[in-house]
Design a protein that fits this description.
Strand order of the largest sheet: 3-4-5-6-7
Helix content: 10-25%
Order of helices and strands: HEEEEEEEEEEE
Number of helices: 1
Distance between the termini: 104 Å
Structural class: alpha+beta
Largest sheet: 5 strands, antiparallel
Number of domains: 1
Amino acid sequence: MRRAFSLTELIIAIAIMAILAAVSFGLIVSTYQFLIFMPNQLNLLSAANEIIDTIIEGAAEGRPDEDPEYFVRNGLRYSVEIKDASGSQLTYIIGYPTNADKRMIRFKSVDNKVYKSYTDLGADLGTPPSYDDADLNSQVVPNDAAGVSVSGPEGSPSQIFTYYKAEGSGWEPLLDKLCDIRRVEINITVKVGSGKSINIYKAASGVDVRQYTSL
């Protein structure tokens, strides 16, 4: 005849089961974070880095049919003149020295997106490029921005640009000239998801700019 378990044996068995359950729960949580949370975080990092890099560095472009050795990057770092500046919008010109090699580029933060739009080389530099989704010269940054929300700091949903003068003081749009801008700071908050499953990543960077205009 088999004897029943003693109280001590039952307590030990329950303790072992509790330990195994805790370990299993930890593994389940870790696996969930790895499969769900980590990919979202990587997407956030990739989107934020692409936005910052696109604004500051841009892409290399040239005129292979006319001059295979001519290349210029179209990021803010390589601007020659800032045409318009606000917290939500920045327009500048790249290309030097002839007008035929110049292009106007605009970044605009609106509706939780960042648009990059630009004119054709040699086009009228007095007309800012549009940021219409239907415009072939307009795109959302990053390109695969589905489900990605981009905004400025808390309380400033579209204000992603801050400007400074040569001595480091803040640039005032009503008091200072556009040619006084010597540094641009970029602050963005990137979000993916909603509700309890939302993931947030904040990124900031800046770049010194040169301007070749006396206006």
